[in-house]
Design goal:
Shape: elongated
Order of helices and strands: HEHEHHHHH
Distance between the termini: 72 Å
CATH superfamily of the largest domain: P-loop containing nucleotide triphosphate hydrolases
Number of helices: 7
Strand order of the largest sheet: 1-2
Structural class: mainly alpha
Largest sheet: 2 strands, parallel
Strand content: under 5%
CATH architecture of the largest domain: 3-Layer(aba) Sandwich
Number of domains: 2
CATH topology of the largest domain: Rossmann fold
CATH class of the largest domain: Alpha Beta
Amino acid sequence: MTDDIENQKALQLARRVDPDGRRTIGVLTKPDMLSSGSCKARTQWLHVLEGRRHQTIHGYYCTRHPDDMDRTAKITFRKAREAEKEFFENTQPWCKSIHKERFGTDNLVIALSKLLEDIIDTALPRIRSEASSKLEDCLADQAQLPKQVECDPPAYVLTFSAIKCNDKSRVESMIIP
């Protein structure tokens, strides 16, 4: 979020590969890098997060991750999420947003999980149908295989080969349908 959204390469790439926006979820990072004096930038990013600018089907989420000092202190994942939650609850303009569910890694994970569940629910009937069709094809192919040889296989092959060399008509009668 330290750069203007118009300069974001990720947004340009997303628009190119997903023009309908069905697979695009915006994730904005580093809101803590915007100083308290960056009122205009903060307001512009809030407009993006609240869907008033650069709208997408799935919208945008904003996360805050440990900074250099936190990483040096080797804070735990839990502490990082707590610090992130506290940041969004107490920092303007994020704490005044009408879309608080768009802030934090936990909310992003919930949203992604729901989207993945929807994709699976949509795709599963087709996958089951394709698997059933493939199983039917395999069973039909299996039914075309010759019956299993019930005698000693090496003896069967030797006998088959000997007959083939001597009498082609007997070979045809030995072929198991």
